[in-house]
Amino acid sequence: MSSLSPLNNTAFLQQIIIAVLGWSWIEYLAVGLRLARKLWRGMADEGMYEVLEYETTLELKNKLGNKAVFSKRQKVKYLQNNIIAYQDQAWGDGEILLDYSCSPGIEADRYRPDQKTYILISLREEKQKGDMDEFHIEWGIKDGFLRSDEQWGATISHRTHFLKSQIIFPKSRPPIQAWAVEQLSNKKHLLDQNTTQLPDGRWLVQWETKRPRLHENYIIKWEW
Predict the structure, then answer these.
(1) Residue 77: which residues within 8 A CB-CB, separation 6 or more?
(2) For residues 119 and 162, is the Cβ–Cβ distance under 8 A?
(3) pTM to 2 decimals?
(4) Which of 82, 103, 177, 199 is the most exposed place for a label (fewest CB within 10 A)?
């Protein structure tokens, strides 16, 4: 294999400079748009799937806060071919992941490299790019909410189009005050207008947002 001599290299660079200087503003714009699209695709294509809808519900079963159930629904669209597994994650105080259940798929493995526990769900079939699934996941929590001020949240680890978080309080112990917190961007929203009493007497706090930011932690904090 031969390489260009310094002279040939100089001539080649001169030809490139002449060609670029001869471009019209339309050609510059076209190249810029192509580069922007490539950059956007690289930033937006996070992982094996995107989340179209993400809804979480934490129900505090009694006024002591020692019994709770967490459930979530995620509607996802796969971004790659030959996907056979889905990864869930969980964290929190007390005993978590009690009576874990998921649909579709079955739990295949569980590991905890740090404060989070990761659950590998076997899909039992092969998914292709463009396929969609709606996951329904639920687990129990023991001794997780024993303080007068508590919190629960969701971390956005994939491109997500819609997020809704709900917390249900027992009739005998409603929330005194609640906030939605965007941790990384340091934003806080008072949820007085988002608190209602359900027909059976329980209390509901909810918050939602469109296109939540990637890697942001969306937390509901409350006093009760």
Answers:
(1) 49, 50, 52, 130, 131, 132
(2) no
(3) 0.77
(4) 199
CA distance 188 to 196: 20
CB atoms near residue 209 (< 10 Å)? 17
Condensed to tens digits (0 to 9), the pLDDT of residues 18-45 reads 555 565 555 545 545 554 444 444 444 4
User: Which residue numbers in the chain have pLDDT < 50?
Assistant: 1-8, 28, 31, 35-45
**b/e 163-182 (16+ beta carbons within 10 angstroms → b):** bebbbbbbeeebbeebbbbb
pLDDT for 114 equals 81
Topology, domain 49-223:
Immunoglobulin-like (2.60.40)
Report yes or no: 60 and 150 within 8 Å, Cβ to Cβ.
no
SS3 assignment for 87-142: EEEECCCCEEEEEEEEECCEEEEEECCCCCEEEEEEEEEEECCCCEEEEEEEEEEE
Beta-carbon contacts of 145 under 8 Å, excluding residues fewer than 6 positions away, are 60, 65, 66, 68, 93, 94
| CATH 2.60.40.1730 residue window(s) in the chain | 49-223
Our CA angle for 50, 40, 77, nearest 5°, is 15
